Structures are given as structure tokens and as C-alpha cells.
Amino acid sequence: MVGFAQGGLEHAARSIMSTPNAHVGIVTGFFIRNAVPPSPETDGLGGMAHMAAGLANAGIPVTVISDAPCSKAVWAITTELPETVALEITSVSKASVVALRERLAAGERPITHLIAIERVAPGSDGKPHRE
């Protein structure tokens, strides 16, 4: 795995910096229903904050994207960043996610790069697992 990933971060950074009118989307948030109390995880939010602040400071527009269950935590972080970033919140339904994707793709400055931080992928059964 390490060999497979080697150079990936550098390649991604070069791609962002060399793309005219780059616009980075950062998808984050992982809601843990069985936590006491149920709440979003917090590991990815720090990474998102640093990544978003660094990119925005370099003059690259950033849109942070999350889902409704994580919205308060993600909003709280994005409002404290030293540079302004856009925030998009969607419900967890497929239709809502597709509509957001279409709207962002049709925007004045579409997202050119998408970074996922602490988002779960579908399990072996194809269903998105939340914990």
C-alpha cells in the first residue's frame, strides 16, 4: 500500500496548483449514531480546517461539503478559518447528493478537484456504513 500511494500527495498538489481556475471541494464529516451522545467524529474536521485554510490562503477557492448530521460541527470549524470558504450541506439522500453535484458542476467556477477527509466508503455489501 505504501508503494502504491508513494508520490500521490505531490501529484495531487501539483495538479491543483497547475490547473487554471482551480476550485477544491473538501468532503468531510462522519456521523457516529451509536456514540453517547450521537455526534460527528472530530478527526477529519482538523484536517479539513488545515487543508481549507492553506488552499484558501494560496488563493484557491474552497468549498467544504458535508451532510446534515455533521452540519453544526463542520459549520463551526469553517466559520473560524482565517480565510473565507464556501460551505455546502446536503441531506444523506442520493437525490440530494446528485442535485448538489449537478449544481456545483454547473456553477460559475466548478469544482476541479475533490478531496475526501474522514468519509466512509461503501462496505462490501455496497451500503454506506456510518460507523
TrEMBL record:
InterPro entries: GLUCM_C (IPR025504). It comes from the Bacteria. Residues 5-129 form the D-glutamate cyclase-like C-terminal domain. Gene3D superfamilies: TON_0340. This is DUF4392 domain-containing protein.
